[in-house]
Write a structure and sequence with these properties.
Length: 122
């Protein structure tokens, strides 16, 4: 992840589940376009928050990811678990999207309707 990037922490507070403490906040069009492309993996605790974003692709990626689509209140509207490379995921009701390490959705029982808290990392 680039130096100077803004990092956030994402959690489901109602169940004390931390989705990641080192999530890059992609604010610009250029940051959203680059995303996770060219990386070999996504370590635990890391991720990418694309805002605004209602669709993502994994073309050019070498690993699967979990995808969490959030509405403007940060409520989960759709989930894609272990989305493989060379795929597309869309949620027209989404305002933003979290890209997380594959397996996180299943491991923590993340569900549609869960409310995510996002705050700047310390």
């Amino acid at each position: 992840m680039k130096a100077g990037a803004v990092h956030v922490e994402a959690r489901i507070a109602a169940r004390d589940v931390c989705l990641g403490k080192h999530i890059v906040f992609a604010r610009t069009s250029a940051e959203r376009r680059e995303g996770l492309l060219g990386r070999k993996s996504l370590p635990p605790g890391h991720g990418f928050w694309l805002n605004p974003c209602e669709a993502i692709h994994t073309f050019g990626m070498a690993f699967p990811i979990d995808v969490v689509f959030l509405d403007r209140t940060l409520r989960i509207r759709s989930l894609r678990s272990a989305l493989a490379p060379k795929r597309v995921a869309i949620c027209l009701r989404a305002e933003s999207t979290l890209e997380l390490p594959a397996g996180l959705v299943q491991e923590f029982g993340i569900r549609i309707g869960d409310l995510v808290e996002i705050r700047r990392s310390r």
